[in-house]
Amino acid sequence: MNLIWQVSFLDFLIITVILGGGAAWMAGRATARSWGAFPSLVVYIVLLTVAVRFIHYALFGGSFFLPPATFGTALHYALVDFVVLMVLAWLGRRATRAGQMAEQYSFAYDKAGPVGWRERA
Q1: 33 close to 96: Cβ distance less than 8 angstroms
Q2: Burial per residue of 7-45, b for 16 or more beta-carbon CB atoms within 10 angstroms, e otherwise
Q3: Whole-structure pTM over 0.90, yes or no?
């Protein structure tokens, strides 16, 4: 066991970062495209974290929440998964929002990098 991944780094990379991260990016993009509030994104990522934790449990023998003996371990790795997924969701939301601001309000804003915008001079 490690502090970041439970079974193996490859397991963490494939399930949490690639599959879960892709879904988190798309959730962030969807909330930005619908001009949704940030707390709704947090709720979506909490649900996605539970799903990712279950996949770790079902496929690779990681811990899940239901047996009380493994609840603490599962909570630790769920928090790690949540932070990784939330960062990717936030990046997806900001990248989409930057494009929206530059396109919708082109008279007032320019895109400044992949996740930002600035006022026009």
Answers
A1: yes
A2: beeebbeebbbeebbebbbebbbbbbeeeeeeeebeebb
A3: no
pLDDT tens across 25-34, in order? 999 999 999 9
Burial category of 58 from C-beta neighbours within 10 Å (exposed 0-12, middle 13-18, buried 19 and up): exposed
Report whether 102 contacts 37 (CB < 8 A). Answer: no
**CA 55 to each of CA 64, 88, 99: distance values in angstroms, whole numbers, following the listed order:** 9, 19, 33
Residue closest to 5 by CA, chosen among 76, 65, 87, 68: 76
Average pLDDT, the chain: 91
Quick: pLDDT tens for 43-77. Answer: 999 999 999 999 999 998 888 877 788 888 889 99
